[in-house]
Specification:
By secondary structure, this protein is α/β, with parallel strands linked by helices. Among the domains are: 1-30; 35-136; 345-401, no CATH class. Helix content is 67%, strand content 11%. β3 (62-72) and β4 form a beta hairpin. α8 (329-362) crosses α9 and α9 (365-372) packs across α10. It is elongated and about 200 Å long.
């Protein structure tokens, strides 16, 4: 055999072996080197355990996918596991399934288990996120068991102490004697109860008809009572409703009153304090007033006498004033009328003067003529002089009224008797 043909055969043999190795690697690899079709899901768990890349995802022991990657959340409290599932199992993985991290054996490799739910919903969407239960933590269970053992140990110690107290106190010689006496008394009591039950049985047997009649009457009364209740059911229901409403209103009122008292507690306390202080001052003032009256009794009596005398004089003065008004009613009426007439005259004169001043300012009418005619000017000056005299008279009248009053009554003139003539001797 030539060397070239041998080399060709050896090379072909090596190529076949490499192809078989590649096919076997692809066939038995966890992920198929990424050549198999999958769809992604994201699982969220608090502890990823010992899950690694390419860990299988099993459903009832059948591999339906693998773990592609995982990463921590931003706060570092949870883990996001990205898995790739095979599309041929997509119809089995639906809403309602449970994802859980499991272990092969007690300390074997961990995988993600998929457990169907009681109800199957829609298919899971690609890239959707789902919760995943964390794996069984032996250390955490050991800590819980240790705490449980400590609590059991404490409970055993308390039970031991309780048993010791029972042996010391409850099961002492005195306690045992008391228990024996109590049992004996209970036996005597039970015998008496047995005798009483026998007598009651005989009494019921003897008076059976009477008891039957009483029960029948009681049943008839119950039926009548039920009929009355059914007949008056609306009234009873309305009464119960009104009672419930009243109780609700009363409860609301008490709540509002309690709230008002709680809210205004400082003000109420201040008011009560002020009222107490006021009553104390009032009591003290009453005592002082009583002492003052007792001390100044003569002065008070004199003041009352003076008030009585003043009231008598005031009554007499009122009578004199009424008499004066009655006697001078005509004069007073005339004075009032004259004052009213004079007031109207002054008002007319004032209006005329205003009109004249306006004409003077405008240079028209009579006022304008006054400025041109000397005779009219002199007459107008005389009128003004007369008005001035009238104003003086009114001023004197007002002064007299202010000095003497409108109710002034002149004193009657005294008659002077002429001296008697002396007769000649």
């Amino acid at each position: 055999m030539s060397g070239g043909r041998l080399e060709f055969k050896i090379g072909l043999f090596v190529i076949v072996l490499l192809a078989m190795a590649a096919v076997m690697s692809i066939k038995f690899s966890e992920s198929g080197f990424g050549l198999r079709n999958t769809y992604p899901l994201t699982l969220r768990t608090s502890n990823a355990g010992t899950i690694i890349r390419d860990s299988p995802v099993l459903m009832s022991g059948v591999k339906i996918g693998y773990v592609d990657s995982f990463d921590l959340t931003e706060d570092g409290r949870e883990v996001l596991i990205n898995v790739e599932l095979y599309p041929e199992y997509r119809t089995r993985v639906r809403e309602g399934v449970t994802f859980r991290i499991k272990s092969t054996g007690f300390l074997g490799d961990q995988f993600i288990g998929v457990f169907p739910g009681e109800t199957m919903g829609e298919e899971l969407a690609e890239g959707s996120e789902h919760p995943c239960e964390s794996p069984f933590d032996v250390e955490q269970v050991g800590q819980k068991v240790s705490g449980l053992i400590e609590r059991v140990d404490g409970a055993v110690e308390r039970i031991d102490l309780l048993v010791g107290n029972v042996n010391t106190n409850l099961l002492s010689s005195n306690s045992v004697e008391n228990i024996t006496a109590a049992i004996a008394e209970f036996r005597v009591t039970s015998e008496k109860l047995n005798q009483i039950s026998t007598k009651v049985d005989g009494l019921i047997t003897t008076n059976g008809p009477a008891l039957t009649a009483g029960v029948a009457e009681l049943s008839a009364f119950a039926k009548e009572l039920r009929g009355v209740v059914q007949t008056n059911a609306p009234v009873l229901q309305a009464s119960i409703t009104n009672f419930n409403t009243s109780m609700a209103n009363f409860s609301e009122f008490t709540d509002q009153l309690r709230e008002a008292m709680d809210t205004n507690a400082p003000a109420i306390h201040t008011s009560v304090t002020n009222f107490a202080a006021f009553t104390r001052r009032l009591h003290a003032s009453a005592g002082e007033l009583e002492v003052l009256i007792a001390t100044n009794a003569p002065t008070v009596q004199s003041a009352l006498s003076n008030i009585e005398t003043f009231s008598v004089k005031l009554e007499k003065t009122t009578a004199d004033l009424q008499s004066t008004l009655a006697n001078n009613r005509t004069n007073i009426t005339a004075v009032v009328e004259n004052l009213a007439t004079a007031t109207e005259s002054i008002k007319g004169i004032t209006q005329s003067a205003n009109r004249i001043l306006m004409e003077i300012e405008s240079g028209q009418g009579l006022a304008g003529g006054l400025l041109k005619n000397e005779e009219m000017r002199l007459q107008f000056q005389a009128v003004l002089t007369n008005l001035n005299g009238t104003a003086i008279h009114f001023s004197n009248l007002a002064s007299n009224l202010n000095a003497r009053g409108i109710f002034y009554k002149p004193k009657p003139e005294r008659l002077v008797n002429p001296p008697r003539s002396v007769k000649p001797k």
